[in-house]
Amino acid sequence: MDPPGLVVHGKAEPFSAALRSLVNNPRYSDVRFVVGQEQQEIFAHRCLLACRCNFFQRLLGTETGPGMPSPVVLSTVPTEAFLAVLEFLYTNSVKLHRHSVAVTFGLGPLQEHCVAFIEAHSQEALRTRSFLELSAAALLLLLRSDKLCVDEAELVRAARSWARVGAAVLERSVAEVAAPVVKELRLALLAPVELSALEEQNRQEPLIPVEQIVEAWKCHALRRGDEARGTPCRRRKGTLPREHHRFLDLAFK
């Protein structure tokens, strides 16, 4: 039996730096993207994207002829977020900022880090343009988190702003755009006066199904944690205390 061969490991830093130099570099590029509302042209390398990410593998799977193919248009993706995704794909590392957090490409490790970043910087992230441009799937993932450092009232306002932007872009109603995500809002955490105000606002601009608001009122009427137990009543890390929370008996986990 032949002895095992010698495995030689080079330094990771020069390798990572060399690949980072190819991010948005037209040299040897064989695929272009037109990204964001600014329609910025970004250069990339098909084989690297396809082998690193299932999203790009599906997107770029079609065989191309000679020469540079037509650019792939991603008008709803923020440019800075897209470049952050590319850097991670090329180098397996990226420095996240509140303006560049992206969770729309199905990148498991990067997605986890992005969610953790938003959980720790929730209030700042909610005020960014990137938040308003999140996909419904990305926002749904965030709203399912118990670790968001933000109160539920502010989350409701942020969801409404997000839905308004989507409604204007997609030419659909606010309620229709919001439908996939608002079910994760924990309305029972709001005080009765807040819930009443939300109900009135919802009459003027529908956002949340009436049935969901009714369920929140039930939690107040029952005033029993065992009856109200479940995600709609579970406190988040940033939930501000309210008098009725003692009846829900649902501490943050």
Automatic annotation (TrEMBL):
Domain BTB: 29-98
Domain of life: Eukaryota
One protein family per Pfam: BTB
Coiled-coil residue windows: none
Protein name: BTB domain containing 19
Native source species: Saimiri boliviensis boliviensis (Bolivian squirrel monkey)
Gene responsible for this protein: BTBD19
